[in-house]
Amino acid sequence: MKAIMKIYLLTLLCFVASSLANAEDKNSNKKEDMNNYKKEITLWYEAFTNKNPALLDRILHETWVDIPAPPGTPAGPEGAKPLLAQLTLPSMI
């Protein structure tokens, strides 16, 4: 009976240890994902603030589509660059 109990406890200990190791990996991935997300958001605002459409090449995937996009708008950064230009034109007021 003692041998079975030792095996059971050893198995349980291994399971708990592996669960904790996996939890640490997931948390570090979440932090990395959040850091990447923050960098992309910062670049998005920087593109509009500095009126720099070239930054959209670093942010948007080539298949990205604005929804709803005007007819004939290309996918990816090339479709967003004219929008950025229109939104950052100086005010005529």
Q: Could you explain the architecture of this structure?
A:
- By secondary structure, the protein is an all-alpha fold.
- 68% of the residues lie in helices and 0% in strands.
- The chain contains 3 helices and no strands.
- It has helices at residues 2-49, 56-59, 77-87.
- The longest helix has 48 residues, at 2-49.
- The protein starts with a helix and ends in a 6-residue tail after the last helix.
- The relative contact order is 0.08.
Secondary-structure-based class equals mainly alpha
Q: Provide the succession of SSEs.
A: HHH
Share of helix among residues?
Answer: 55-70%
Strand content: under 5%
Which spans of ≥5 residues are poorly predicted at pLDDT below 50? none
Main sheet summary: none
Q: Quaternary arrangement of the chains shown?
A: single chain
* Number of separate strands: 0
Count of helical stretches = 3
Compute the gyration radius: what is it?
25 Å
Question: How would the blueprint of this fold be written?
Answer:
Elements: H1 2-49, H2 56-59, H3 77-87
Task: Provide a short characterization of the protein structure.
By secondary structure, the protein is an all-alpha fold. Helix content is 68%, strand content 0%.
Notable traits:
single chain, 93 residues, mainly alpha
